Amino acid sequence: MKAFKKITAVLCVAALAGTGFMNYSSAPAVETTYAVADDMNDDWLHAKGSRLYDSNGNEVWLTGANWFGFNCTENCAHGLYARDVDDMLQSVADHGINIIRFPISSELLISWMNGTPDPVSSVQASYNPPVDEVGEDGTVTPAGKYGNINKDFCEADGKTLKNSMEIFDVIMKKCKKYGIKALIDVHSPASHNSGHNYTLWYYEESAEDCGGMAVGHTSEKEITWDDWKDSITWLAEKYANDDTILAYDLKNEPHGKRGYNGTECPDGIAKWDDSTDQNNWKYSAEECANSILAVNPNALILIEGVEQYPKTEKGYTYDTPDIWNAPADQSPWYGAWWGGNLRGVKDYPVVPESGTSQIVYSPHDYGPSVYAQTWFDKDFTTQTLLDDYWYDTWAYINDQEIAPLLIGEWGGHMDDGPNQKWMTLLRDYMIDNHINHTFWCLNPNSGDTGGLLDTQFNNWDADKYGLFEESLWQTSSSGKYIGLDHQTALGANGLSLNEFYSGYSNSEGSNLDGGKKSDGTPVETQPGDKPFTTAKPVITTAKPAETTTEPPVTVPNPGSVLYGDVNNDGKVDVTDISTLALILADRKDMTPDQIVRADVTNNGKVELADLARIRQFISRVINSLDPK
Question: Widest CA span of the chain, in angstroms?
Fold first, then answer.
């Protein structure tokens, strides 16, 4: 990502006694112990052609989102100053995200590797004493005074905040608890809130002289090429027997080009060729992959693109002299988004010593709200995007069965215009072609894209999530989200891999490949099914058009109550499911009449069982929503 706004939350630590701390009594109470974790270590994946498979040979689809912060000066995922991590991850899982891409810095990893983990900031952690506690000065801390928020980030004394590595480990355990997998992205050499501006994966004197970091930045810490490789290898070895972390993205957006880095500074750009230069991304990625796979042969290795690739078909190379500042019509190179250019794969594929079964290529792609690229100058369509940019830059890798793709970053603002149109086209292309992806991002503090969550990391942006949600792996008619863990279901109403492949894959199938059963046959849409089509409408209005293919269901309930009509629009359809799902996930209050309409299980409360019953009714599994 090009830039984001630095978070401005006040630092909150867990030394509570006598501090006048804000009372977070409304935060959700969480248990001290975790749920029984799945420790079978059976969720590792491998590549074959353009697809990813589990250990049973079943296809999987990684559909997730980014949650940044471990790459920044706060040394922790952002938002945990305002929200409990259990509440956050439960909501993420309930919203169908089966993998989170966690950006991190080499500087932070090095501190862990050296046994001196850097501290965290902008984290709220507190405990709730079960009985009154009397301090040495006689001050009484009443039982229940403080709300439980990020309780597991505190040491046993309830007052000392754990370090960054310990908190990272807690978050990984909680991902496992909710059926979420993790993807670790080395976002920058240094812990820096604009660290994505580093062109290279290391920060040495030569790189600094050539503009290797953002203009005007100075750093006292040198992060060498070996530091980068050794620190991510250290993490891979630490988690080699824990399949929570499935993949390692070796460097976020390697970039730089002859022109603004200077023709006299070839060592300051990320290139892709057959050399053994340290700034050759192909060579460096191969060496780092070998290092990681030596300690964990099951890990997926994600390789991003670069920014600039020479027109090799015309005989140009990175070393061609005197022409790198040529006019556009004579340009010797192809440009791309930072991290987006994978043209080099066709000439110089990344091939570790153990083969390519763990290699996944991971371009980044953005729309016109981030930058007005030339391929947006026309009234663009999927075909023009393929012709002008996508196909030769990265889509050919999937189309020609060279390797799987995972679009590591895509997203942007909902503008009712070109950017929203681009997001819709890319989303549909990924669905139709089984391309893995992680949306940028959960965080609202990404300046040029915004996020899926609001400024307090609590409520979901309904419109943006509605666009994104269609690209999550889910069953075709019941709409159950499919996780990547064989044993643990994804969230409260999702499925584990075993559940999907034992009961759903050949009955209703999923939206994999635009909507096919696992045996390859098309899904036969039944009345009320959630449609997955290859020709989705472009969103051009503030509110998405309804996507149901059947007229809304009218329920002949006695009296004036239309049970299941959560949003009170006089009908029962998929919008009621979406409304209730968001209410339950975000713990929103409901009006008394909403509770009456939503309580279709007639037990005096509204819960996931009501959501499931309404979904069954819309899918024609049951014929009535009359409370029993």
Answer: 82
Length of the chain as a residue count:
628
Q: pLDDT class for 26, splitting at 50, 70, 90?
A: very low
Name the residue type at position 549.
T
Q: What is the DSSP letter of 405?
A: B
**409 in active site:** yes
335-362: b or e for each residue (b if 16 or more CB lie within 10 Å)? bbbbbbbbbbbeebbbebeeebbbbbbb
Distance CA 258, CA 478 (A): 52
Most confident of 323-327, 402-406, 490-494, 534-538: 402-406
Q: How far apart are CA 406 and CA 436, in angstroms?
A: 4
Buried b (16+ CB within 10 A) or exposed e, 548-567: beeebbebebeeeebbbbbb
CA distance 236 to 186: 12
How many other CB atoms are found less than 10 A from the CB of residue 546? 10
pLDDT of residue 144: 60
The whole-number average pLDDT for the span 403-420 is 97
Asked if 109 contacts 226 with a C-beta cutoff of 8 angstroms, the reply is no
Calculate the dihedral angle through the C-alpha atoms of 563, 568, 571, 576, rounding to the nearest 10 degrees.
-80
Q: What is the mean pLDDT of residues 576-587?
A: 64
In whole angstroms, give the CA distance from residue 603 to residue 587. 18
**In the predicted structure, residue 520 carries a pLDDT above the cut 80:** no
36-64 pLDDT per residue, tens: 345 679 999 999 999 999 999 999 999 99
Question: pLDDT tens across 161-209, in order?
Answer: 999 999 999 999 999 999 999 999 999 999 988 887 889 999 876 544 4
Cα–Cα distance between 210 and 26 in angstroms, integer? 51
Three state DSSP letters for 297-345: CCCEEEECCECCEECHHHCCCCCCCCCCCCCHHHCCEECCCCCCECCHH
pLDDT at 128: 67
**Residues facing residue 126 across a β-bridge:** 149
Under DSSP, is residue 187 helix (H, G, I), strand (E, B) or coil? Answer: strand
Written as one string, the DSSP assignment of 551-602 is PPBPP--STT--TT-TT-SSSBSHHHHHHHHHHHHHT----HHHHHHH-TT-
253 has catalytic annotation: yes
The one catalytic residue in 74, 107, 204, 253 is 253
Q: Which of 107, 409, 469, 508 is catalytic?
A: 409
The SS3 call for residue 48 is strand
Nearest of 190, 185, 155, 191 to residue 170 by alpha carbon: 155
**Dihedral class, residue 79 (left if φ above 0, else alpha if ψ from -120 to 50, else beta):** left
Give percent above pLDDT 70 in the chain: 76
**Whether the predicted model's global pTM rises above the 0.90 cut:** no
Handedness of CA 363, 365, 370, 371 (dihedral sign): positive
Q: CA 362, 248, 196: angle at the middle one, nearest 5? A: 65
Instruction: Say whether the peptide bond before residue 441 is cis (omega within 30 degrees of 0).
Output: yes
Give the chain's radius of gyration (CA, Å): 25
Question: Where is average pLDDT lowest: 77-91, 388-402, 565-579?
Answer: 565-579
- Amino acid identity for residue 613 in this structure: R
